[in-house]
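Troubleshooting entry. The earlier prediction with HDD gave an output that would not parse, so I re-checked the input for stray whitespace and re-submitted. Clean input:
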Amino acid sequence: MSDEKRKHPKAESKKKQQLEDVTIDHTGKKMTTNQGIRVTNDDDSLKAGTRGPTIMEDFHFREKMTHFDHERIPERVVHARGTAAHGYFQVYEPLTELTKASFLQDPTVKTPVFVRFSTVVGSRGSADTVRDVRGFATKFYTEEGNYDLVANNIPIFFIQDAIKFPDVVHAIKPEPHNEIPQASAAHDTFWDFVVNNTETAHMIMWLLSDRGIPRSFRMMEGFGVHTFRFVNDRGKATFVKFHWKPVLGTHALVWDEAQKLAGKDPDYHRRDLWNAIEMGDYPEYELGIQILEEENEFALDFDILDPTKFWPEEQIPVKYVGKLTLTENVDNFFAETEQSAFHVGNIVPGIDFTNDPLLQGRLFSYLDTQLIRLGGPNFHEIPINRPIKPPVNNQRDGFHRTTINRGVTSYSVNSLQGNYPRPSSEKEGGYAHYAEKVEGKKIRERSPSFHDHYSQATVFWNSMSPIEKKHIIKAFHFEVGNVESEEIRQQVVDMFNHVDHTLAKEIAAGVGAKPPSAPAGPKITASSPAVSLLTTNYTVKSRKVAILLEDGFNFHDYSQMVNELKGAGIHPEVISHHLGTLTSKEGKKVQVDKTFATSESVMFDAVFVPGGAKSVNKLIAKDKANYFLKEAFDHAKTIGASNEGVDLLADSGIRGIAIAGSEHHPTPVESMGVITIQNAMNLSNFTQTFIK
Ligand code: HDD
C-alpha cells in the first residue's frame, strides 16, 4: 500500500491521529545520526588508513552498532508469536440498561481498536498453524480510557486458580533440559501435568478438537472466558460472558494441513490476516454477550466463578450487541504489535470483575509482565498503548519518560497547585468498583463447587459430530503418542475414561495402553450443539482457489470460472510451472501468480483445472500437478475440472470421481467434493455448483 493511502485512514480516528503524529517517513530525506548530525558515509568505518584499525572516535559507527546490539526486547512469556491490526468497534443499540460503559451507548460512534492474535506456547519465530490455543486480545481506545478484552479462542481454561499458571506454562513450554519441543504440547512434562491436575480435562478436549488448528484468525471465535460484570448507571450489576463470533464462520484446518503449513508457510495466519486487510476483505466479528441476573448466580449446575466451565448457549443464548471490523495493517511490527501491552485490569466504568480466582491472579500478572518486557513503568507512553485522552496524575519519572510534566507539585493533597489533578466523582466519570459484599476467613482451599472436573468435558464430547470425534481421537494419538513415559500414557487413558469410556478405549488403542474395563464416571447424555463447528455459518467469501494452468488452456473455461469466483468474493490464483505469462489456445494472455515450487495445495481452499488439451497434457507430464490435486483431495477440499481438465483428475488417481457427460451431456457431476463437467461450452451451472 502506498504511503499516501496509509496516511489517509490513520487520520480517521483520534487514535489514528495520535499515531500519525509520531509516525515518520524517510522518503526523500538525508541521513543523520540519532543526534541529528548529517552523515557523509554509511558504508565505511573511520580507519587509520584504508587498511588500518577502526578509530574509537567514530561516533557514527559506535552509535549505529550500539543501537543494533540493543534492538531486542524479551518476548512475551506466553503468547510470544502474534500479529495485529487496527480497526473499530460499533455497538448496534445502546446497552444503557446493562452497562454505563460509554463505548456501548451510541451506535454512531466508531471506537478505535487494536487487536492482537497469537498462539500461546511457541516462541516469537514459531509457526502459526501449530496445535494451540489462540489469543484474541482487543484494546478499545474509548473516550473513558483503554478497555482491554484479553480473550482466547476457547471459552474455558486449563486451570482454576492463577497460582497454577506458572506450573501449566512450565509444563507445556519446551522441556528445560533440551528445549524440545517447540510450540507443542506433545511431550512428557505437559501430559504429566495433565494427569496430575485433572481440572485440565475439559480444556484438553477443546485443545485437541479442531478448535486447536484454526483455518484463519478471521475464522475463529473469541471468548472472554471469565464471568465479568456489567454495571449500569443506577449501580445495578449483571453477570456477563463475552464472545466474538466471526462473520465468516468458525473453520479449522485438518491436522496434516496444519503440520505441512508449519513448514511450507510458517507465517500462514499472519499472511492471511495481512493480505485480507490489504485486499479490503476486512475481518469482522460480532460481539456477543451472555447475560445472567445476579439473583441467578447459583442457578446453574456449575459455579460461574469456575473458569473451566462454559455457559451452554442453548441454556443462555448469546445476544449480539456490536461489531468489530479490522481495517488497517500496522506500519511497523515492532513499534505497534510487539510493543502493544494488554492487561485484563484495563477496564472502564460500567464493566467490572468477579471473584474468579484465575481472573483475580491475571489482574496482577499483566501489569507486572509489561514492566520487565517493556523496560519500566512508562510503557503506557509508547504510542500504541496511549489512551486517546492523555493520562493525568502524579506518577513521574522512570526509564524513558517522554511526557514533560510542568508545575511544582507531583503529590496530592497539595495547595501549591490548587490540589490538581483531582479525582472525579462517579457522576463525573470516575471508576467506582462494584460494591460487592465479601466476607470470609483467609483460606488456601479450592471451593467444593469447583470440584467437578469432568461433566462439561463429557458434554463437549457428546456435542461433537462423528468426524470431529475422530479428529479428537487422532489428536490424542499424536499428542500422547509422543509421550515417552508408558505410565503417563496409561494415566491419560484412565483420566479420560472419566470423560467418556469409548474415547478412553480409542485413546488406549493408539498409544499402547491398557483399555479401561468399565466407564469411570456417571453417565452424562447432555450436549451443547453450539460448540460443534458443524453448526457454524458458512460463506466462501475471501477463500482462495488455485487454478492449475499451462500454455494452451481453454480461456473460455478459465475466464468463466474466474469471473464467477470474483463475483462471489473468492480469490483465484494461477499456478503453473514457471512465473510470467501463459497463452491460451485462443491466444489470450494470463499472468501466473505462483509456481508449483512456491505454492502447495495446503495454501488453498479449493482447486480448479480448466480444459485445454495442451495445457492439461503438460500438467500431466510433470508430476507436480498430480501431487497438488491428490493432496487437496486428501484434505477434503473442493476440486473442480472442466472439459479436458477432467483427464488430469483421472491421471491423479483421485478416487470416486464421476466423469460427467462423457456422451455430450454437459451437466456438472459432484462426488466426494469433486465436481466435473465435460463437453461443455457454458460452465455457469458448473461454476455455481463449484462455489456452493
Ligand atoms: Fe494470559 C498474555 C489471554 C490466563 C498471564 N494472555 C496473554 C495474551 C492473551 C491472554 C490473549 C496475549 C496478549 C497480547 O497479545 O499481547 N490469558 C488469556 C486468557 C486467559 C489467560 C483468555 C484465561 C482466561 N494469563 C492467564 C493467567 C495468567 C496470565 C491465569 C497469570 C496469572 N498472559 C499472562 C501474561 C501475558 C499474557 C504473563 C504474557 C504477555 C503479556 O501478558 O503481556 O501476563
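This one parsed fine. The pocket of HDD is lined by residues 76-79, 82, 116, 118, 135, 137, 150-152, 157, 162, 165, 225-226, 307, 340-342, 358, 361-362, 365-366, 369 (CB under 6 Å).
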